[in-house]
Amino acid sequence: MRTVIFDLDGTLADTSGDLIAAANHCFIGMGAGAQLDPQRDAATALRGGRAMLTLGLDRMGTRSEAEIDRWYPELLRAYGDAIDHHTVVYPGAIAAVEALRSAGYGVGICTNKPEGLAEQLLQSLGIRSLFGSMIGADTLPVRKPDPEPLFEAIRRAGGAPDRGCLVGDTVTDRETARAAGLPSVLVTFGPAGGDMATLEPEALIGHFDELPEVVARLIG
Ligand SMILES: O=C(O)COP(=O)(O)O
Ligand SMILES: [Mg+2]
């Protein structure tokens, strides 16, 4: 079976608002006040918790790996407590996934969010059952850009590892697909959308309406 694997943050859903709220909770806990702005820092948020802590601690002038390690668990805890207050699925994402399923493709998720939080978010958005597989950052001993989580997401969705593609929003997704020898589709509707073309993916989409046709062209 041909399979389409999706990244989660910044691809299927705009999770930046809840991620930034969790990071700002940490900076307030450090006594420094909110450091990240939901609009201006959205692209950093979509690169994950450690990227947000790095940026905020840089602004405070107190960045260290030890401080990032110390606050990362608290960030995840705060995020899990309010995971779906601001988060929205991108326009057309559900319809595109349903169209791919109807056309006979397997669909799954490969994210660098911890698996438990990714499951919680997908459940609360009501979209978990659309996907035949879900591989998170800690599901396997390795994470993206290692190709193995992508291969495993394809296998668990019932597909063949040499007949799939990855839809994502960052250089990490591009590198994962390249390492797997599979085509990537990058979305341009997110906060870093303007930079996607420089990564030279096999395809770019500005709206999910374009995805079924692009997938058919790339993997048949
Ligand atoms: O949390 C992250 O590091 C990014 O998550 P993603 O892989 O779903 O974009
Ligand atoms: Mg992403």
UniProtKB/TrEMBL annotation:
InterPro entries: HAD-like_hydrolase_sf, HAD-like_sf, HAD-SF_hydro_IA, HAD_2, HAD_sf, PGP-like_dom2
Entry GO CC: cytosol
Upper taxonomic lineage: Bacteria, Pseudomonadati, Pseudomonadota, Alphaproteobacteria, Rhodobacterales
GO molecular function: phosphoglycolate phosphatase activity
Gene3D superfamilies linked: HAD superfamily/HAD-like, Putative phosphatase, domain 2
Listed NCBIfam families: HAD-SF-IA-v1 (TIGR01549)
UniProt EC number: 3.1.3.18
Organism listed in the record: Thalassococcus profundi
Reaction it catalyzes: 2-phosphoglycolate + H2O = glycolate + phosphate
Biological or metabolic pathway of the protein: Organic acid metabolism; glycolate biosynthesis; glycolate from 2-phosphoglycolate: step 1/1
Coiled-coil segments on the chain, per record: none
Family: Belongs to the HAD-like hydrolase superfamily. CbbY/CbbZ/Gph/YieH family.
Broad enzyme group: hydrolase
Keywords: Hydrolase
Protein name (record): phosphoglycolate phosphatase
Keyword Disulfide bond assigned: no
GO terms of biological process kind: DNA repair
